[in-house]
Amino acid sequence: MSGRRIFARPARFAAMAPYVWMVLFFLVPFGFVLKISLSQTAIAQPPYEPVFDLTAGWEALKAAFAALSIDNFRLLVSDDLYVFAYVRSLTVAFAATALLLLIGYPIAYGMARLPKRWQAVAMVLVIVPFWTSFLIRIYAWINILQHDGLLNQILLALHLVSQPVVWLSTDTAMYIGIVYSYLPFMILPLYATLAKMEPVLEEAASDLGAPPWQVFWLITFPLSLPGVGAGVLLCFIPIVGEFVIPDLLAGSNSLMIGQTLWLEFFTNKDWPVASAAAIVLLVVLLVPLLLYERLQKRQLEQGR
Amino acid sequence: MTDELPRTDAAANAVGADAYPAAGQPLLRIEGVAKTFGTFRAVDGVSLDIKAGEFFALLGPSGCGKTTLLRMLAGFEAPDEGRILLGGKDIAQALPHERPINMMFQNYALFPHLSVRDNIAFGLKRARLARAEIATRVAEMVALVKLEGLEKRKPDQLSGGQRQRVALARALARRPQLLLLDEPLAALDKKLRENTQGELMELQRRLGMTFIIVTHDQEEAMTMASRIGVMKAGKLAQVASPRELYEAPRSRWIAEFVGDINLFEAESKLRDGHRLIIGTSGAGALVVAEPREPVGAGKLSVAIRPEKVKLSRRGPVSEAGHETALNRLDGVIADICYLGGTTTYKVKLDTGGMVQASVANSARLDVDAYSLNQHVVAWFTPDDCVVLTS
Amino acid sequence: MHNISRLSRFNIASLALGLAFLYLPIIILVIYSFNASRLVTVWGGWSLRWYHEFFNDRAMIEAAWMSVKVAVSSATIATLLGTLTAVALSRGERFRGRTLFSGMLYAPLVMPEVITGLSLLLLFVALNAERGFWTVTIAHTTLTMCFVAVVVQSRLGSLDRSLEEAAMDLGCNPVRAFVAVTLPLIAPAIVAGWMLAFTLSLDDLVIASFTTGPGSATLPIRIYSEVRLGVKPEINAICTLVIGLIAVVIVIASLASKLSSSQGESAAPL
Predict the structure, then answer these.
(1) Which chains touch B (3 or more CB pairs under 8 A)?
(2) CA of C162: which chain A residue's CA is closest?
(3) B20 pLDDT band (50/70/90 cuts)?
(4) For residues A83, A89, A90 and A91, what is the CA-based torsion angle, rounded to 10 degrees?
(5) C11 to chain A, minimum CA–CA distance in Å?
(6) Do the domain assignments include residue C241?
């Protein structure tokens, strides 16, 4: 315990610069998002009003405050387009996370069962694709999934289909893309908990008469739940706000909220609505975000 | 309540039990079992019979193969050669969950996400016992290991001793034909370990069950087991009762592994009736009783346990004329090690060797104690000596 | 073999399939980058034609150079700040605002990029900052320093505290003990953190799109606008080059960390 106190002062000093940075570039911007979400769009630079101008005096400031309204949020709630986008985002995120868990668990489990030396190799192998660009990985799938792409060529050659299947611009392609991109994020936390688990617990269960599938369900799986939680949150939260994958792989008839936000911002130049959409997305994700923070904190700062 | 507990009628209750042999009959027969990991022969042709109702200890230094042998009995490893017969049926290839054998693991392997009750009930649920039956058995077990009131706790809310009891209860709950204990007391501190040894023995006697314990602690094996198998480099070096192991070790290695011992290398050998006179490098000529089995051709040594060596200031009054009745060695005290109940003296012999004598401190005041550099006579009878081949 | 705690056939199969799934698309992409044919799907023999095309594409080259500059500078600042953060959080007593600090730190790891990007842009607009190299660099630093902090923090956490205590016992003050003992031990994690920050920055499309200004597009922004128009063999070539660059960075960094500490286990990115 005394060791902690010795380090207190240098540590506090070390924290200063990053602390100021994070407040300035992470926390403060949300204030601007909130403020602009309450503003109206305008054909001007910047494209919204009111603009707070501290030099314009107290009266102008009061008027600016009075001009703020929650109209944008009303719009988000009343317009089906936005509601559907939120619903679709959540649905896609749920389904994709479930898929990821289903695919990632056996892989992580296999890794944890490898001899120690091979575990390190397997971990590197899982991480390396993650180091190659996200965009590139999506693009790689476009190569494969397009009309005369490799997948259709193989299917045709094997006479499994008589004419090329439309893969691109479908939900299937989007799910493939999401699973492919997020798989390492699911595998790594799962692997971390599975590798830490003592194999003797599984032996004990087996010794007490549990056949292999019971050993898994009664011992292995319950004990890996912290890893499952971390993996699920690590995938679910960003997928809800995902933009690139649905934009490149899914069809354009139903949009996810990330795409809607992007459209409002870049195409329609409607910054206030985009900001309001971001605020709502943040509120939707607040609970999983807090859960994730608690998990991270427990893993990194306690248990020591 | 606990006294009503039936002597284990394992035959009636154990899962998948066949005919359970009566006490004294071989329950488990290990025949030429061997296991190789890579190029390392962990267990190298072990054959052993374990009788029903026996408390058997596998003793050996780490890496001797005792744990591998135990794991083969539990089913975590399959032997490469040989058979393991339980009640006459070969179970060598059976999976762990198919065997009427349970194990108490080193460090206990309690399921951290389950309560004490659920840990104990785990094996019973797997046996598909009725809910009421499970409840009764769990209550029985909790009472047996005196854990009443702690049923709802999780393993990490228990002390080391309590955890050990849960592990024991969990392994006993299925009333196995055979209970394996892998270093069951290694994680306990000395005082608790001694108490628990007694409790385990008492329990085993009361339940009439068959226990096989693996340990590297020879005192623990001697205290608890009725028979001990000493393992060395994958082989059984000797199987004997604790007394026999201590008093008549079959080889020099066993003599040194089990307890302290004085060893003198033999240089010559002379027969004198039913005595042997052996010339040693450190202690001169020693008279020993002729061993029951004729000594082999290998290098001989004479061994004597420290507590069999007596010390006196002037030496014993020898029986008239019988100079072969006793071995007398003159020397000076070179080192004194006070251990409470006993004191160990190292005596530097005039003949050049060194002999250890362990003397009981039978009086509180040390009027009889020897001091450093004091001249003493160390003596012992020929019958207390053992002739060993290396 | 019935040892339940060892590898089963099912384990091996799932591992093999999983790794194939992860690697096949990338391998296919690399192979097609050497395809002579303009039609992506028709194999026209080996050729470096698309690499030529890329090296003659001025806009693409400029975007690539911009990306590398941003990645190097933001990764370096982020490594500095992230390491300081990790030290503060794992060695400091509770200080005022600690909960807020660690909260701010873990949120960007999972925060949808559209939100982070939008909020930073609105800040820059409000500050009337000229958008371009520096705004993207600041944005990327904000994101990646959190990853660096987590990587370094997990290494710090696994370190034996008594090493520092021993150094202090032998006469170092806390800061010296940290520099002399702890820093060399966490060096592999710091290197890994830098690499992670570098690739994350090189990778990012969404935040860069929000925070960059006209005329300073990064490589992903250029690639994205090309990809939206359909598959082009030149893109395959660029992607292969990026993969190659990252592979080189990984190899150098892992060699460096191997040299700097033989027992330093490579830290997981998360």
Answers:
(1) A, C
(2) A3
(3) low
(4) 100
(5) 4
(6) yes
Q: How far is C233 from chain A (nearest CA, A)?
A: 10
| Chain C environment of A122 (Cβ under 8 Å) | 15, 19
Question: Is C170 inside any structural domain?
Answer: yes
Phi, psi of B269 (to 5 degrees): -140, 135
Number of domains in chain C: 1
In one letter, which amino acid is C170?
A: L
The residue with tokens 């630079």 is A45
CB-CB under 8 Å, C126 with A110: no
Go through the domains of chain A in sequence order and give each one's CATH number. 78-301 (1.10.3720.10)
Question: Mean pLDDT for chain A?
Answer: 84
C192/A contact by beta carbon, under 8 A: no
The maximal CA–CA distance of chain B, rounded, in angstroms, is 79
> What are the chain B neighbours of A206 within 8 Å (beta carbons)?
75-76, 95-97
Q: How many CB atoms lie within 10 A of CB A146?
A: 21
Sign, CA torsion B20/B26/B32/B35: positive
| CATH number of the domain within which C213 lies | 1.10.3720.10
Q: Is C130 inside any structural domain?
A: yes
Q: What is the mean pLDDT of residues B318-328?
A: 64
**Could you list the residue range(s) of the whole structural domain that residue C87 is in?**
58-259
Tens digit of pLDDT for each residue in B231-248? Answer: 999 999 999 999 999 999
The answer to whether residues C196 and C162 touch, using CB atoms and an 8 Å cutoff, is no
pLDDT digits (tens, 9 = 90+) for A101-137: 999 999 999 999 888 888 888 888 888 777 777 788 8
Per residue in C188-222, is it b (16+ CB within 10 Å) or e — as a string?
Answer: bbbbbbbbbbbbbbbbbbbbbbbbbeeebbbbbbb
- Tell whether A83 lies on the interface with B, counting CB pairs under 8 A: no
State yes or no: pLDDT of C4 exceeds 50: no
